[in-house]
Amino acid sequence: MFTSRISAPLRHGDTYDLPADATLLASTSKVVQQAFSIGSNILGLQFHAEADTGAAFERWLVGHACELAAAKIDIVKLLNDAAEFGAALAVAADAMMTEWLEQVHVD
Questions:
Q1: Rounded to 5 degrees, what are φ and ψ at 23?
Q2: Model confidence over 36-84: pLDDT tens digits?
Q3: What angle do CA 45, 46, 51 make, to 5 degrees?
Q4: Rounded CA separation 74/1 (Å)
Q5: DSSP H helices in the chain
Q6: Which of 5, 39, 81, 107 is 20 to 30 A from 58, comparing alpha carbons?
Q7: Cα–Cα–Cα angle for 2, 6, 10, rounded to 5 degrees
């Protein structure tokens, strides 16, 4: 699962410790823990696979401008990345969630 590589805008600096018995599924050079699973029914995501990269994203940027500036996150780069990668991200997010949900076991 999650064998593809895709570029995505980085909007946070938060991180967490990997839970016991978790398998790391995704990482970046800036934030190692981006996704993990525990068994076949628990999926944890640091990133927002559902994130809109269109007008809603621009409104989110405006609403979080102070927070992003304090974290030294380049808003113009985020906008450019959203324009460049947004369509591919939407396809990858749908495929990722579909693949995950298809393998979940109901006991």
A1: -110, 125
A2: 999 888 999 887 777 778 888 889 888 989 988 888 888 898 888 888 8
A3: 85
A4: 31
A5: 55-63, 65-70, 75-103
A6: 5
A7: 110
